[in-house]
Amino acid sequence: MQTSHKIIIGNSQNMKEIGEGTVHLMVTSPPYPMIAMWDDLFCKADSQIVELWQKLDKKKSDSGLAGQIYTQMHNYLAKVWQETYRVLVDGGIACINIGDATRSIGGKFQLFPNHCRITEECEKVGFTTLPYILWKKPTTKPQYKGKGAFLGSGFLPPNAYVTLDCEYILIFRKRNLRRFEPHDEARYGSAFSKVQRDEWFSQIWQIKGTRQTTSELERRTAAYPEEIAERLIKMFSIKGDTVLDPFLGSGTTMKTALANGR
Ligand SMILES: C[S@@+](CC[C@H](N)C(=O)[O-])C[C@H]1O[C@@H](n2cnc3c(N)ncnc32)[C@H](O)[C@@H]1O
Questions:
Q1: CA torsion angle for 134, 138, 143, 146 (degrees, to 10)?
Q2: Which pLDDT value is given to residue 219?
Q3: Cβ of 120: how many Cβ atoms within 10 Å?
Q4: Is 113 exposed, middle or buried (0-12, 13-18, 19+ CB in 10 A)?
Q5: pTM metric for this prediction
Q6: Distance between CA atoms of residues 8 and 16, nearest Å
Q7: Mutate which of 221, 226, 243, 258 to test ligand 1's pocket (most atoms within 8 Å of Cβ)?
Q8: Which listed CATH number (3.20.20.220, 1.10.260.40, 3.40.50.150, 3.40.80.10) goes with 23-259?
Q9: Would 192 disulfide with which of 21, 186, 196, 202, CB 3.0-4.6 Å?
Q10: Tell me: the pLDDT tens digits for 84-97?
Q11: 199 SS3 class
């Protein structure tokens, strides 16, 4: 099947190249707020974030500044969710892979529940929230800063922390269900099997993460596994549909769309 693909080098907060209501599915993974590897990106994008970090460094205690930084980072992403809403067709689906973050700031350890903020922001722009998927990455041991250890105080209650070993795949829809003619050929030609349906539409997916230990460049792309993109594309689009990834990175979504006739 002949398909066409376009990479736009630009800022997805303003996707002026993409017309309103022209995309059937968005599959993406943004930079994760409050995860250290993305600090520079958020600082480059927003001078207020730089100023807030500087204030925090001077104060040496949180005093609400971490919360403000976290909010600013989500404001940055929210502009992309707004643009996504604009470019999606009615009934179009948005799938967002995101992990929460844990961080010690000013001596205080806490969780930054990115999945909650993104859900709130997507609802604000008009999306309907649908049941989400928990992507559980198989690990032999809970990890903290690359070391196999629980966070906290070993075997003594009550001050240890639960390890973050799941990420979220949040799913949203723009307005009402997509409508098709009875026996639409492309739709029927995109059907999944019963085995696929039972596995894909259950809430916990056990899929190995993509190895990111080779070069600095590869580490910085933070690629997700093709299996994730492939499942989402087959679940929420039909052959010939247009799929968008506003945070393309190494291009996993595009490669998978191409392989699946989208
Ligand atoms: C988590 S990575 C995506 C990885 C991707 N799923 C893959 O498999 O390679 C997020 C990407 O979004 C890019 N990015 C951040 N802000 C952006 C923006 N405003 N417009 C376009 N891309 C952006 C980052 O440079 C990074 O490549």
A1: -110
A2: 61
A3: 12
A4: middle
A5: 0.94
A6: 10
A7: 221
A8: 3.40.50.150
A9: 196
A10: 999 999 999 999 99
A11: helix
